[in-house]
Amino acid sequence: MAFTRKEKEVIVKQYKEWVENSNAFFVMSYQKMNMAAIDEARSKLREVDGEIHVVKNRLFKRVMDDMKLEYDETFWEENNMVSFAFSEAPSVAKVMSELAKTNVFGIRLGYMDQNLLKAEQVKALADLPTLPVMRGMLLGTIMASASQLVRTLAEPARSMAAVVKAFSEEGQAAESAA
């Protein structure tokens, strides 16, 4: 389907807006894709505040050139879809990694903070725990250190109290024996 120059400008503007509003984006190749597969991908991505779109290679290349993002020239030889992470990049990468296991999609590369990520790096990003899990791990680490500090500070007072209690019990035992 041929697009007019004006339509192409609108499409490029939309691509730029998606890239600028996302924390990261991941490029996937697709083979034998059907509507069921794309609907499933879109549904899973909506759950993690992400989107996936089939892009026109030449127009998306223009956006990447404007933003001075690096890529391999052979990159444009396949059909590409781009998923955008609008909140948590690891969550979207995790969904992309799951989709890549279906042999319909393949992870090509990604960009996070204007830096190129290879397919292996995108998969490593997918292996990271989600943000709530990481917050819990950090809080657990902080709480463990804080409770250890409290125990260390309280130990001398606890020892002193035990000595005072032992002397008072010894004194009471002596009085009752007499």
Features:
178 residues; Alpha-Beta Plaits; five-stranded antiparallel sheet; 6 helices
Tell me the β content: 15-25%
Strand tally, please?
Answer: 5
Cα-based radius of gyration, to the nearest Å = 29 Å
Helices, by number, come to 6
Q: In terms of per-residue confidence, which ranges show pLDDT below 50 for 5 or more consecutive residues?
A: none
Average pLDDT number: 83
CATH architecture of the largest domain: 2-Layer Sandwich
What would CATH call the class of the largest domain? Alpha Beta
The termini sit apart by: 109 Å
Structural class: alpha+beta
Q: In total, how many domains does the architecture comprise?
A: 2
Q: How would the global form be characterised?
A: rod-shaped
CATH fold node name of the largest domain: Alpha-Beta Plaits
By CATH's scheme, which homologous superfamily of the largest domain applies? Ribosomal protein L10, N-terminal RNA-binding domain
Biggest sheet details? 5 strands, antiparallel
H and E string = HEHEHEHEEHH
3D architecture notes:
The chain is of the alpha+beta class and 178 residues long. It has 2 domains: 5-128, Ribosomal protein L10, N-terminal RNA-binding domain (Alpha-Beta Plaits); 129-178. The chain has helices at residues 5-21, 35-47, 57-66, 89-100, 119-126, 131-177; strands at residues 24-30, 50-54, 80-85, 105-112, 115-118. A 5-stranded antiparallel sheet has the order 2-3-1-4-5. The radius of gyration is 29 Å and the shape is rod-shaped. It starts with a helix and ends with a helix. The model has no long low-confidence stretch (mean pLDDT 83).
